[in-house]
Amino acid sequence: MVPTGTVAAIMSTLMWIIAGTISKKISRELGSHLTAFLVVTLSLIPILTATLLVGVYTIPLEGIILAVVAGIFLGIGFILGFKALQTENLSSVSSLTEIQPAVLVLLGLFALGEHITTLQVMSIITVFLGASMILTTEKFDINKKLIPAILSSISWTFYWAIMTYSITNSNTFALPVFISRAIGIPFVIVYLLRDRKAPSVVLFFKKLKRNRTFTVLIALTIIASFADAVGDVLFGITVGSPVLAIGAAIIALSPMMISFFGFVLYKERLTRLQLFGLLIMIIGALALSIL
Questions:
Q1: Rounded distance, CA 92 to CA 99, Å?
Q2: Rounded Cα–Cα distance for residues 218 and 15 (Å)
Q3: Are 134 and 92 in contact (CB under 8 A)?
Q4: Average pLDDT per run of 10 along the chain, which is 291 residues long?
Q5: 117: DSSP letter
Q6: Beta strands, E only, the chain
Q7: Which of 71, 95, 142, 289 is least surrounded by Cβ atoms within 10 Å, i.e. has the fewest?
Q8: Is the dihedral of CA 24, 29, 30, 33 positive or negative?
Q9: Closest by alpha carbon to 278, among 290, 16, 258?
């Protein structure tokens, strides 16, 4: 029988593929400010539901503190991620998430004093070499608009590293994830308020009622937020299971699938250099996941 943690990792990967693919459309049409606010806020609904179903409503103080800190990185990660998606290819943005395993190993090295092997060093170099290729334009310049995607991936790495400790210290996955999402909301609210083009509450509901295209976009936003939230909850199950390494390896393949949907749905094209960069990043990330 397939372990529960492995099944959860596969399902969370599918959920994140759906969320990432849809997020490109809504970020481009609604703007990164409104998209970040709606996705993070609406995602509380399925996570709250999961928390109520699990039935664990108390966790140690250490677990709460860790979840709060993780929520800060979550909010920042969403803001930067949607900022990059608003203007850049889905394929390029999703590919850069492959730096997360490398950043995680480096975090363990410098923050926790963990030992890393020669193979891990080579894998880290491979990942960052691939990232530099994806950042490189056809004119061999650095695409600065993809920098937020890099910073977003780093922020999400800190989020999951801290969240892993919160979940393992709390003996439950749903409540820490809910707390972190709730903490992320003030950050996306501040980000939304900085957008002068964002519709007021009254105008928002008027457009929702009268503009069919806007209504469809909000429906897609709800789907994306729910898919992302369910993905988080499912990966929380993987974190608390003994097959975390296998789960991480499965999730490392998701950028390849998201890039495929970017090619099919949005007619995106990566240069040969970027494609090669994506390939070696996936190899490096997989190696780091299983080493």
A1: 12
A2: 18
A3: yes
A4: 78 91 90 91 92 84 94 95 91 87 80 78 90 87 92 92 87 88 94 80 70 87 94 81 68 79 85 89 81 64
A5: -
A6: none
A7: 142
A8: positive
A9: 258
